[in-house]
Design a protein that fits this description.
2 domains; alpha/beta; UDP-N-acetylmuramoyl-L-alanine:D-glutamate ligase; Protein-Tyrosine Phosphatase, Chain A; single chain; 431 residues
Length: 431
């Protein structure tokens, strides 16, 4: 029996040693023992390489603005573990975590004795989320974000109201494949028989895979730039402004405070999903709730300005597509500013394809490290980069303090890379 929150977290994190264990058999085993809470959930399932978290945030805020109580399951967390299982944007309590661990832990120990083996950390957390949402009577709808891929992801054991695929890019290639079509096949694995699919995927080879899978499963599909469109987009001081045209409505003058073209695409995707759910009678959401929900949405760690004097921005650009979006956003919103970059990333990323474009916008670039199993050392990153004004410090605190002390009045400190890195440094930067 677990008695304290600290004991509960220690037990959960002890599962990290088991690594990533793709497959659904262990989840199905636990769900059966828990009387199938996943079957009691009215939900939305979101997969994709980048943009999942922001899209979940937009969906949650719109539905909440329309009066619904919304559960979300996301990863990773930024400030506290409980964020991963939240209701209306508020993490569940420490007491809830302890109770959930005491429900799942005996199952984990029993499962360990079977041929299926021990559940991983992510499987344990996912089981906790399904049990929490499936047994709660006051939650109207739940938005589940996949952890890795889709087809064999632990979340892929429930039938949602709609499947959502944000975009496809090169990430986790050791597990998902070496081509866009292979990666898209894994993401498209969340598509269920007869369940509609809405996507913002643009690459032809990836989209072909999603459309083919949708047709095989007789699932209606809605594709950006074919079934719904972004019009009149321009950057404003507070963020972005644009119009979304869906098959049933044109919604003008939408505004978001999360910056970048990629965030406009995520917001348009969320808008299309909400309109679909509204037309199908699953929810009732007026246009005013879409506008207000989008404008109020803030997702920490996504081009987030955490200080104004000096200007410090953190952004979770953790793969080549994320770097490309980051550079586009810098060009739009930080034109003619000197950018000083601090970067740290994990070893399983395409680091060379990230470093070259990142260095192209940097006045100086400093590499650092943090406490995580798969982290790349600061020295290794330093040696991969050709920038003339580069440096490395293994201590991220030293890196941040040193670079901040050199900033001039109009300079910008941009801290980017792994989301796990940002979650570790963000509280320090805010203080």
């Amino acid at each position: 029996m677990i008695h304290t929150y600290e004991e509960a977290l220690h037990w959960i994190h002890s599962r990290l040693r088991l690594g990533i264990k793709p497959g659904l058999k262990r989840m199905e085993w636990m769900m059966e023992r828990l009387n199938h809470p996943e079957q009691k959930i009215k939900g939305i399932h979101v997969a994709g390489t980048n943009g999942k978290g922001s899209t979940v945030c937009y969906l949650r805020n719109i539905l909440q603005e329309a009066g619904y109580t919304v559960g979300t399951f996301t990863s990773p967390y930024f400030e506290m573990f409980n964020e991963r299982i939240s209701v209306n944007g508020k993490p569940i309590s420490n007491e809830d975590i302890v109770n959930l661990v005491n429900i799942v832990k005996p199952l984990s120990e029993e499962l360990e004795q079977t041929e299926l083996g021990s559940p991983s950390e992510f499987e344990v957390i996912t089981a906790m989320a399904f049990y929490y949402f499936g047994t709660s009577t006051d939650i109207d709808i739940v938005v589940f974000e996949t952890g890795l891929g889709g087809r064999l992801d632990s979340t892929n054991i429930f039938v949602p109201l709609v499947s959502v695929i944000t975009n496809i890019g090169f990430d986790h290639m050791d597990l998902l494949g070496n081509s866009l079509s292979e990666i898209a096949f894994e993401k498209a694995g969340i598509i269920k028989q007869g369940v509609p699919v809405i996507t913002s995927v643009e690459q032809k080879e990836a989209l072909e895979v999603i459309v083919k899978r949708s047709k095989e499963l007789e699932s209606r599909y809605h594709v950006m730039n074919h079934d719904y469109f972004i019009k009149d987009h321009h950057s404003i001081t507070e963020g972005e402004q644009f119009t979304v045209r869906t098959p049933n409505e044109i919604i003008e003058d939408l505004e978001i405070t999360m910056r970048g073209v990629h965030q406009v695409k995520n917001a348009a995707l969320a808008t299309m999903v909400i309109q679909h759910l509204h037309l199908e009678g699953h929810v009732k959401v007026p246009t005013s709730a879409i506008k207000t929900g989008l404008k109020q949405s803030i997702w920490i760690g996504r081009f987030e300005q955490v200080s104004s004097n000096p200007t410090v921005i953190i952004d979770g650009a953790h793969n080549p597509e994320g770097i490309e979006s980051l550079i586009n956003t810098v060009d739009r919103h930080l034109e003619n500013r000197s950018i000083h970059i601090i970067f740290s990333a994990l070893k399983d990323k395409k680091l060379e394809k990230m470093l070259e474009p990142l260095a192209s916008i940097a006045e100086t670039i400093t590499f650092t490290s943090f406490d995580f199993p798969r982290v790349t050392s600061a020295r290794e990153l330093y040696e991969m980069c050709d920038h003339p004004e580069k440096n490395y410090m293994e201590s991220w605190k030293d890196a941040i303090d040193t670079v901040r002390s050199t900033l001039k009045e109009d300079d910008v400190l941009l801290i980017t890379g792994s989301l796990y890195f940002l979650s570790e440094i963000r509280p320090y930067v805010l203080r």
